[in-house]
Structures are given as structure tokens and as C-alpha cells.
Amino acid sequence: MKAALGTAAILLMSVFCAMPATAQQQSPTSSRMRAQMGPMGMHHGPATLQSTLDFQLTIVEHEFEGAADAMPEDKYGFAPTNGDFKGVRTFAQEVKHVAAANDRFFGAILGHPPAKAPNYFEQENGPDSIKTKAQIMQYLRDSFAEGHKAIASITNENAFQPLSDAPVPFLNTRAAIAIFACVHANDHYGQMVEYLRDNGIVPPASRKRPLANPPGPHAGK
């Protein structure tokens, strides 16, 4: 039993330890993870619906932002060609798509009207004016920050109340939107992993840890 608990703690800590120590000190995402995790890497304090959703989003945010930042700016226009990849998004568009979706999902939880886009492409992939890696990374970070604000507004009382202005019909409660937003970002994280590895880059969440190398959530990707 003790061995099993120790292994579980190590697995959770592997998510937190994936980035170098200096990066952890500078990253708001890593700081949030440290605040939410106890000394053994377990979630700190009694679990609630809000804290559980927020911690899940924090893990997704940590891995997704790490992958987005790992790609050099001159490769942001990359899309795979070794296979049937006709019409797929570029790496930059993958990142912007998740940021745009985050805005739509979390904005609905907060009651914000959806942003108007001049065309379907920008509606799905964010404003065309956001072009550089720095701009895209800021757009992404802002979208996750909005996600944490949205989750902070979810309570046991309103989590499953139907929303009159849901972003899509099957996501008509705050809890459903928050859960799906994490699933959606993880889906595109998996695609970005292939883009990174096609360019000889190991995703940060899959790199060797400084103290140990236990299998993390995305080990092998």
C-alpha cells in the first residue's frame, strides 16, 4: 500500500517536474501548480468540484504551453507532409485554435458574448492579426487565465444549471464546458507532439526529469 501511494505521488510530481527549475520559477502556471500541490505532489486541501476542475486545467495548461513554447518561431508555420496531412493546421494555427476555443468555452461560462470574427477561419483559429510567436503565446496564456477565472465562478449550485447561450448544444452546463475544454486542448496537444517530434524536438512533458524519470501522463508521446 505504501509503495503504491509513493508511486502515485511520483507520477503526479512528474507533471510538475517536467520543466527546468529556472523555468518553473518564472512560469505562472508552474507557480500555480506548486501552490495547489502538497509536499508529496498530491493536491493540497480537501477536494471540491472547483478545485478539481482548476487542477485539471492547470495540468493541461502546463503541458500545452510548454509544447507551444518549445517550437522555434521559424517553425511555427510547419505542418506535417509525410502522410495524408492535406489541409491540416500549421503549428501556429493549432495553438491559436486552442486559444480561440478557450475564449469561446470559458467566455460562455462567464456570460461573455462570443467574439465576432470576420470569417469562419478566424472564428476557428483566432484573429489573423496575431502572427508572431510572442503574440500567439500571449494569446494562449490569456485564454488559460480566462479559464481559471471561469472555473472560479463555478459552484455546486450553478455547475449543472443549463445555459441559455451554450457555445455548442451538447455543452450546455458550466461543468460540461470546463471538462470539455480540457479534453479539447489535450486532443490538440497530442497533434502538436507529432509536429514537434517531426522537427527533432522532444516535448517538455516527455523529457527526462532532473531527479528521476518515472512515466508521466504523456510518457512516450
Query: Can you count the helices?
Result: 8
- Beta-strand content: under 5%
CATH homologous superfamily grouping: dinb family like domain
Secondary-structure class: mainly alpha
The CATH architecture is: Up-down Bundle
- CATH topology category name: Four Helix Bundle (Hemerythrin (Met), subunit A)
Helix and strand sequence: HHHHHHHH
Q: Give average pLDDT, whole number.
A: 83
- Tally of extended strands? 0
User: Helical content, roughly?
Assistant: 55-70%
Largest sheet: none
Query: Which outline best applies?
Result: globular
CATH domain class: Mainly Alpha
Through-space gap between termini? 29 Å
Parts with pLDDT < 50 across at least 5 consecutive residues: 1-26
In total, the number of domains comes to 1
What is the radius of gyration? 18 Å
Can you put this structure into words, describing what you see?
56% of the residues lie in helices and 0% in strands. The protein is mainly α and 221 residues long. It has a single domain (2-206), classed as Up-down Bundle (Four Helix Bundle (Hemerythrin (Met), subunit A)), CATH 1.20.120.450. α3 runs antiparallel to α4 and α4 packs parallel to α8 (174-198). It is globular.
Strands, helices and their partners?
Elements: H1 2-16, H2 21-26, H3 28-36, H4 49-70, H5 91-110, H6 120-125, H7 133-152, H8 174-198
Helix pairs in contact: 3-4, 4-7, 4-8, 5-7, 5-8
